[in-house]
Amino acid sequence: MCCVVHPSVLSKADVHVHTRYSGFGQYKAITFPESICRPEDVVDEARRKGMRVLCITDHNTVLGALRAREYAKRFPDIEIVVGEEISAKEGEIIGLFLSEGVPRGLPARETIERIRAQGGLVIAPHPFSAHVPALGKLVDELDIDGLEVLNGGHVDGYANESAKKHASNGRWAVLAGSDAHASAQIGCCYTTFEGETAADFRKAILERRTATEGEVSTLQMGIKWTVQVVLKTDLLILRSLFGPLKMEYPDDPLLNKINIMRGENKLVALISSSIFLIPPVPILTGVTGVRVMQRLNRTNSFSGHDHQ
Question: pTM for this one?
């Protein structure tokens, strides 16, 4: 009697996703939220897009990931991996399968040691980017499990290609993540692996049996995300003018920051954002940002920073 061989199940994992717990970024004199997404909303969106494993990797904190994991326990079709995108001295490092946060500002080797002490895996996000902190060729000297060779936020065409070339020797697992700061971006780039669980995903990374799929965010998506962030933040600020915003969690960084803002600062923020929203300002800002990114990463690539 002939036996039937069933093909292995391939599942999707987004290895690089942010929530509002990523805090705030700074561009010159402008402070902006890295994300406005609640952890629960991120989980819901990932489920809609068929992610079996979702890695929450907020900047320098695991609080958002812990919130997301607790919420996701009610769903059988998704697992949350607690992660963190850690600002080490030499560049950003992602720790996955963490139980607690790793402090920012440590040397890369010490950062990795602290990840390992928790039984975590070490990922180099956007390793050859020139416009965000990246490890570059230091990845060759560090104890790293995987390289993010497809990052959904890098529309320049150089940083991802450099990472793919550098990982072509098979030394690391190749990974893809959306680097989503807005729910619409989740799953635009993802990693495929055999199995269905977070444990299967971990095993695939360690055995370097992963593959990358998806496409980077478009310029239109980036502009849409920026406008959404501004509009939703403005709505929260407007509501706060009539009384403190109700806190679902006492450690919510976005609502906390809005609640402690002085009234005059809230008005200044609303006026400034209204200027930004006037067409064609968002489009011009988006186009300029992409061109700057392309120039930086092209120069970085031609200078020999990428794999030869």
Answer: 0.90
